[in-house]
């Protein structure tokens, strides 16, 4: 896989995630010092799910995030374009669908809520993916995007980008990941990603309203929330 500024060919990105699937969950937990569990819980809470509602978890990977969403009592489906990731999560008791974010295999207005965690920056066309998520969400339904962001405090931002992303993350990945080279792409994709305000503008431009965000980890991660107009 090339650097993050190159076109994100779906086949290349899917193949990369196939390669890291075996130890993906372990690597994420180590790289985030266990904060990934908290972020999944906060994503579920931000969606304000109720029992019986239908929820799409896009870029669900091994479906660990989908299982967290199911704790709400909502009916949840995991969708991902990496068959290797879905296979790695085969034991998790939620429905799973192979799906391309730009061509979702679901009817209009099919879901009460949709979410994507740490996957939007891997899509070739961010705005189109967000518009496709809006298409499959009922009017008045909710979107939550959990994604890497830009730290708000300058000294922390510099240290995070220069030390954590360029040095620490690759070093840890070499020890625990099944494909350490893929985490070079991870670092590049985070560095090239939109800051929080710009992502909010893209979400609004894709047809969502009432867009807001909450910074986590000092802005290194952000939860964006929006509603489909009724």
From TrEMBL:
Keyword tRNA processing: no
Record-linked CDD domains: AdoMet_MTases (cd02440)
Record field: catalytic activity: a 2-demethylmenaquinol + S-adenosyl-L-methionine = a menaquinol + S-adenosyl-L-homocysteine + H(+)
GO MF term list: demethylmenaquinone methyltransferase activity
Top EC group: transferase
InterPro entries for this protein: SAM-dependent_MTases_sf, UbiE/COQ5_MeTrFase, UbiE/COQ5_MeTrFase_CS
Signal peptide feature range: none
EC number: 2.1.1.163
A Pfam family of this chain: Ubie_methyltran
GO biological process terms, semicolon-separated: menaquinone biosynthetic process; methylation
Amino acids binding S-adenosyl-L-methionine: 62, 80, 100-101, 117
Task performed by this protein: Methyltransferase required for the conversion of demethylmenaquinol (DMKH2) to menaquinol (MKH2).
Record-stated family: Belongs to the class I-like SAM-binding methyltransferase superfamily. MenG/UbiE family.
HAMAP family, per the entry: MenG_UbiE_methyltr
NCBIfam families per record: MenG_MenH_UbiE, PRK00216.1-2
Protein name in the entry: Demethylmenaquinone methyltransferase
